[in-house]
Amino acid sequence: xxxxxxxxxxxxxxxxxxxxxxxxxxxxxxxxxxxxxxxxxxxxxxxxxxxxxxxxxxxxxxxxxxxxxxxxxxxxxxxxxxxxxxxxxxxxxxxxxxxxxxxxxxxxxxxxxxxxxxxxxxxxxxxxxxxxxxxxxxxxxxxxxxxxxxxxxxxxxxxxxxxxxxxxxxxxxxxxxxxxxxxxxxxxxxxxxxxxxxxxxxxxxxxxxxxxxxxxxxxxxxxxxxxxxxxxxxxxxxxxxxxxxxxxxxxxxxxxxxxxxxxxxxxxxxxxxxxxxxxxxxxxxxxxxxxxxxxxxxxxxxxxxxxxxxxxxxxxxxxxxxxxx
Amino acid sequence: xxxxxxxxxxxxxxxxxxxxxxxxxxxxxxxxxxxxxxxxxxxxxxxxxxxxxxxxxxxxxxxxxxxxxxxxxxxxxxxxxxxxxxxxxxxxxxxxxxxxxxxxxxxxxxxxxxxxxxxxxxxxxxxxxxxxxxxxxxxxxxxxxxxxxxxxxxxxxxxxxxxxxxxxxxxxxxxxxxxxxxxxxxxxxxxxxxxxxxxxxxxxxxxx
Lengths: 325, 208
Known about the structure:
The complex is a heterodimer.
Chain A: H1 15-40, H2 45-69, H3 87-110, H4 112-116, H5 120-147, H6 160-183, H7 187-219, H8 222-232, H9 235-258, H10 268-292, E1 307-308
Chain B: E1 4-9, H1 18-27, E2 37-43, E3 50-56, H2 65-69, E4 75-77, E5 83-85, H3 95-99, E6 106-107, H4 123-136, E7 141-142, H5 148-151, H6 158-162, E8 168-172, H7 179-186, E9 202-205
Parallel strand pairs in B: 1-9
Antiparallel strand pairs in B: 1-8, 2-3, 4-5, 6-7
């Protein structure tokens, strides 16, 4: 007998939802950076192309992960029915519109004949502005979805959306760096990549501050504190996220930025590849750890301080039955 | 139209789990699903600490957070205040499970046998599985509905009927002469975690 008790971990959302939130974040982050780059006329146009090529497929695959997690996937079309009160319904609309805009932007950007036609550039700019708004909406949604869950105090400290938005920008940035490195590892590319490495380092530092703020906020309340202690006991979080997902990429990005901007420094490409891959892995681990450490609140009433009794898990009894022959 | 609610007298409850078992029998809930749960814990401080049972079920909230977050409108509140799930509309996103601070909701995709080592379902389990799937569906959110099929036939919810200590009382909260209304008023009935703002309709009478 294993009834739900107060303080018990949630088990319904696991790695499928973590991957959905992660890919939504990567898509939103990559698009935002790509669209801003296209506005600023960034020296490395490849980063815009790569960002656009990452955004739409990431969102599409992420949505498939969400659908795979549904208990009744055939009814997924009903997901946007109640946007007035439900964040899943709002998110459905936000992501759908964002997918359409990112797809249109990709098509217009890729087929230059369309882009160069009269009004083509204006159309791209209008789409990019709308795309950025909905990309930010998507990144925020992945955090607000959790933040609006009344049953899990760990997610309701108010900081989860901030952490997820910053992590989305970081992972989107790393995804673009990875794509650029894999597609063009010449000395010409290294100069803008060094600038991107500096930006990545700054963003990772921002994420470190955000996650520390998140944990500090969680430690201030009893129920979230239990989850915060639990997450800090997880090797997956401490080693997988903090060390491999944040510290190592940060060091590698600083090393890349400080390297000499000449052909001899082409050895920096493996460093960028490893740093970006670990940074992406860290983003996935963060979401998975935050999800699986979410627990139900403690139930109490005024003048009734109910403390639950933890009972050790008993082994399954041997009832002497043999499996069928 | 009545507004159904429940009173649970913690002075009377001694944690026998009869309510949990009656609920399972009446609603054919699968293994691991307990619409009527009994949490065991303790209250008070040494040397006056005592063991205490805390029965918990769906609180049939006035302002249910599960209904608020449901993206499809599958979770609805009836005129009599009972919160139900329309199994034909639920897509199984499990967001309502995350939104319920009382942990009252479940989602079951596969019915596993009560018996260990992957044994096939017994004929009784097969019957229960079929009855469960007809009533609650597969892969969708499920919860206590105050035994809607029983109360529409003039009976009490199974947990109320089964309680040997008469610790559970069911009735109309809007009727000032109902037993639940009198008990709540006389013994200052309280709700669990009022700070959640859900306005539960399950009240508790506390041990003195």
